[in-house]
Amino acid sequence: MIKVSLPDIQAAAQRIAPLIHHTPVLHSESIDAIAGCTVYFKCENFQKIGAFKMRGASNAILSLSAEERAQGVATHSSGNHAQAVARAAKVLGIPAYIVMPETAPKVKIEAVKGYGAEVILCPPKLKDREAYLAEVVSRTGAQVIHPYDDERIIAGQGTAALELLEEQPDLQIILTPVGGGGLLSGTAIAAKSLKPGIQVIAGEPLGADDAYRSFHSGKKEINTSTNTLADGLLTNLGDRNLEIILQYVDDIIRVSDEEIVQAMRLIWERMKIIIEPSCAVPFAAVLQQKERVAGKKIGIILSGGNVDLAKLPFR
């Protein structure tokens, strides 16, 4: 039984306020004309470390006791969660131990080191990452901060939707991308608690669609292989996250890489902001489902802007 509720998310919002940005909500008339609806973008690409992950990591670490914090925190991640844990630990003056696959981009490894974390490189398979993390915890006594399958993380991620609905209470649909499910499950709890009639929808890449299949089968499905440029959404859905999604989420829409690139390019061109491919997935779902969203007031959480500029999917 999942214990995350609206009061938990509201408490998280107060707890993490000193460590995060209250990100802006942007609107574009040209985007509205293209999409056929009114779209408000919650810009977590402007968040600390460039992604919403800073919210959950901050809440999880700040929820620890002083004694637990003193032992440090540990996680395994190749991307934004690694940077979020490292930065939150640096601000709070505690040790951080981050297990990263040796295949992770060098720029991300250096960014985590730049926040003062100890980086432990490992082979890229999940079993190796988990084994290395277990060794770190055994050696240091550090507290594990899971990227998404953690109630403290879920509550923290839900604060983005809380802020969005405070500014735009009349939204009829709210959308996020889905990978491990931390952002989607936190958003769903916040949105449905504040406004039971709102629709909560996720966008997911066609080439990594375990959440879509899990949503329809009612049990956890696994990706045996992945093939999408939305590299932030390759993780399989967490157990807690699936339970929340089955209870609160209205639909999950799959989109192709071609649709993701089109949506990403439109936001770059029309809104003049940088977003990563994973971030464009829910807007791609809106563009795909124009009849469904026609004339409605839509909120989209732009999850992050950590794109490798040398590997842009368009020119």
Automatic annotation (TrEMBL):
Could you tell me the superkingdom of the organism this chain comes from?
Bacteria
Signal peptide (UniProt feature, chain positions): none
Keyword match tRNA-binding: no
Gene3D superfamilies (alphabetical)? 3.40.50.1100
SUPFAM superfamilies from the xrefs? Tryptophan synthase beta subunit-like PLP-dependent enzymes
Any keyword Ion transport? no
Q: Which UniProt keywords apply?
A: Pyridoxal phosphate
Q: Name one Pfam family in it.
A: PALP
Q: Which CDD domains match?
A: Thr-dehyd
Names of required cofactors? pyridoxal 5'-phosphate
Q: What are the Tryptophan synthase beta chain-like PALP domain coordinates in residue numbering?
A: 17-304
Q: Protein name, please?
A: Threonine/serine dehydratase
